[in-house]
Amino acid sequence: MSSSEFSVQIHEMAGILQAFAYKLTKSSEDSKDLYQETAFRALTNKDKFRPGTNLKAWLFTIMRNIFINNYRKKMKANTIFDATDNQYYLNTGGQTVSNGAESGILMQELQKMIASLDDSIRIPFMMHYYGYKYQEIADQLQLPLGTVKSRIFFARKELKALIHNRYGDTLGRTK
């Protein structure tokens, strides 16, 4: 298929593509930009389209992927959020004093939770925590590699459950 035939087929689907772009963006200006970017990428990557396949589906996939990528870029750009009333806190430049009491208490409680684990999962977990490789742990404890990996997994799982039971979602867990 020649480039001119290909561009004519894309032009014939302009109305459907623009409607889909508007459905994604909910903005007429953004939908025009999305359609234009889709048409450009389709023409640029014409060689990747296999004749005899569904051109409409191929164009919709390109458009959806462009939209998703742009959305992700926007979300990454908007991650910084300052909830302070003014910029005073950002511009003070003075020394801050940290209070380690709360984190110290949390660490003590975490160490107690780790100590409460069964030795069969606590020992491989702590060895892994201290930097031993899985194979080194398996050799030292004379266990199969898969057993070591599963015990470390179960230790993490049990610790996670203990932490969740103790604190719930109050630690500001992110998804």
TrEMBL record:
Ranges of residues in domain RNA polymerase sigma-70 region = 17-75
Instruction: Output the CDD domains linked to this UniProt entry.
Output: Sigma70_r4 (cd06171)
Q: Which GO terms describe its biological process?
A: DNA-templated transcription initiation
RNA polymerase sigma factor 70 region 4 type domain location is: 108-159
State the superkingdom.
Answer: Bacteria
Task: Report keywords, A-Z.
Answer: Sigma factor, Transcription, Transcription regulation
Q: Which Gene3D superfamilies match?
A: 1.10.1740.10, Winged helix-like DNA-binding domain superfamily/Winged helix DNA-binding domain
Q: Which InterPro entries match?
A: RNA_pol_sigma-70-like (IPR039425), RNA_pol_sigma-70_dom (IPR014284), RNA_pol_sigma70_r2 (IPR007627), RNA_pol_sigma70_r4_t2 (IPR013249), RNA_pol_sigma_r2 (IPR013325), RNA_pol_sigma_r3/r4-like (IPR013324), WH-like_DNA-bd_sf (IPR036388)
What terms describe the molecular function in GO for this protein? Answer: DNA binding; sigma factor activity
Q: Which family does it belong to?
A: Belongs to the sigma-70 factor family. ECF subfamily.
What name has this protein been given in UniProt? RNA polymerase, sigma-24 subunit, ECF subfamily protein
